[in-house]
Automatic annotation (TrEMBL):
<dbReference type="InterPro" id="IPR007024">
    <property type="entry name" value="BLUF_domain"/>
</dbReference>
<dbReference type="InterPro" id="IPR036046">
    <property type="entry name" value="Acylphosphatase-like_dom_sf"/>
</dbReference>
<protein>
    <submittedName>
        <fullName>Blue light sensor protein</fullName>
    </submittedName>
</protein>
<feature type="domain" description="BLUF">
    <location>
        <begin position="3"/>
        <end position="94"/>
    </location>
</feature>
<dbReference type="Pfam" id="PF04940">
    <property type="entry name" value="BLUF"/>
</dbReference>
<dbReference type="GO" id="GO:0009882">
    <property type="term" value="F:blue light photoreceptor activity"/>
</dbReference>
<dbReference type="GO" id="GO:0071949">
    <property type="term" value="F:FAD binding"/>
</dbReference>
């Protein structure tokens, strides 16, 4: 049994209202609790980035379900790596908006805020980890 972290990015098919996001999170948390999955979902102007942590088989199966979800498209895996400890042990799925005021000392980050693109993370997966981990201690709702 291997504990892994899997990170992907995607784009909402339609803009998500706060109500849409709350409904999505409720669904995530009920399932993830049962599956022993933890993680963090970030959203900005239609752009999603999500970390899923748990047993490899469970996370892979969940990810293949998530990838088929019509609420988003262009689902692209950024990385998958074995982990010893979870980065988000407290969240069955944490959630945050990446706001204009969120600062991160990372090359190209302000361009990313202007125009979120998958390549920003696929070219350098450690950026995804840095961004997600900068929210590890908070959840918006
Ligand atoms: C951006 C995004 C992230 C999601 N994350 C999760 C998740 O972490 N856990 C989960 O169970 N479902 C997640 N879903 C929902 C799944 O795609 C799917 O709707 C859900 O697993 C179906 O659950 P059900 O079979 O219990 O109805 C996500 C969907 C989207 C669009």
């Amino acid at each position: 049994m291997t504990l892994i972290s899997l990170v992907y990015v995607s784009f909402a098919t339609r803009p998500m209202s706060e109500q849409d996001l709350r409904a999505l999170l409720e669904e995530c948390r009920t399932n993830n609790q049962r599956l022993g999955v933890t993680g963090m979902l970030l959203y900005r102007n239609g752009f999603f980035i999500q970390a899923l942590e748990g047993e490899e088989e469970v996370v892979e199966k969940l990810f293949s379900e998530i990838a088929k979800d019509p609420r988003h498209q262009d689902v692209l895996r950024v990385y998958k790596a074995p982990i010893v400890v979870r980065s988000f042990p407290n969240w069955t799925m944490g959630f945050n908006h990446i706001g204009d005021q969120h600062h991160l000392d990372m090359e190209g980050y302000s361009d990313f805020l202007e125009n979120p693109k998958a390549e920003y993370f696929t070219q350098q997966p450690s950026r995804a980890q840095m961004l997600l981990e900068s929210f590890r201690s908070e959840t918006f709702f």
